[in-house]
Amino acid sequence: MATPTVVPIDKIIPHTVKPREDTGLNNVKIGIWLFLASEVMLFGGLFASYILLRVGADRWPRGEEYLSIPWATANTLILIASSVTMVMAWASCIRKDFGKYRLYMGLTVLGGLGFMIIKYIEYTSKFHHGYFPSTNTFLAVYFTLTGLHALHVLSGMIVNLYFWGPGAKMWHTEHERFTNRVETAGLFWHFVDLVWIFLFPILYLL
Amino acid sequence: MSGTSYDQIDVDHHVKIYLRVFAALAVLTVITVAVAELHLAPGWAIALALTIATVKGSLVACYFMHLISEKKLIYALLILAALFFLFELILPFVTENNSLHQIL
Amino acid sequence: MAESEHHDHDHHHEELGFWRKYVFSTDHKVIGIQYAVTGMLFLFFGFCLMMLMRWQLAFPGEPVPLLGKLFPRGLPGGVMLPEFYNELGAMHGTIMVFMGIVPLAVGGFGNFVLPLQIGAPDMAFPRLNMMSYQSFLIGGLIMFGSFFLPEGAAQSGWTSYPPLADIAPSGQTAWLIGMVFLITSSLLGAINFLVTTIQLRADGLSFFRLPFFCWAQFVTSFLLLLAFPPLEAAAFMQLMDRVAGTSFFLPSGLVVSGQALEVSGGGSPILWQHLFWFLAHPEVYVLILPAFGIVAEIIANNTRKPLWGYKSMVYSLIVLGFLSFVVWAHHMFLTGMGTTMSAFFQTTTMMISIPSVIILTALILSLWGGSIRFTTPMLFALGFLPMFGIGGLTGLPLGLTAPDIHLHDTYYVIGHFHYVVAPGTIFALFAGIYYWYPKVTGRHMSEFWGKVHFWPSFVLMNLIFFPMLIQGMAGMSRRMYDGGATYAHNEGVLYLNKVISFAAWGLALAQIPFILNLFLSLRKPKTASANPWRATTIEWAAPSPPGHGNFTRPVAAYRGPYEYSVPGESEDFTPQFEPAKAPVAAH
Amino acid sequence: MHWFLRFPELASEHGARLDHVTVLVHILMLALFIIWGALFIYMIFRFSQKRNPKADHDGVKSHLSSWGEGAVALAEVILLVGFSIPLYSERVDDLPPAEDSVVVRVIGEQFAWNVHYPGPDGVFGETRVDLVDLQTNPIGLNRDDPAAADDVVTLNQLHLPVGKPALIYLSSKDVIHSFGIPEMRVKMDAIPGMLFPVWFQPIVTTEEMRQRTGDPDFNYEIACAQLCGLGHYRMKGFVTVHTQEEFDAWMAEQQRLKEEAGEVDDFWT
Ligand code: HEA
Ligand code: HEA
Ligand code: CUA
Ligand SMILES: [Cu+2]
Question: pTM of the predicted model, to two decimals?
Answer without folding.
Answer: 0.93
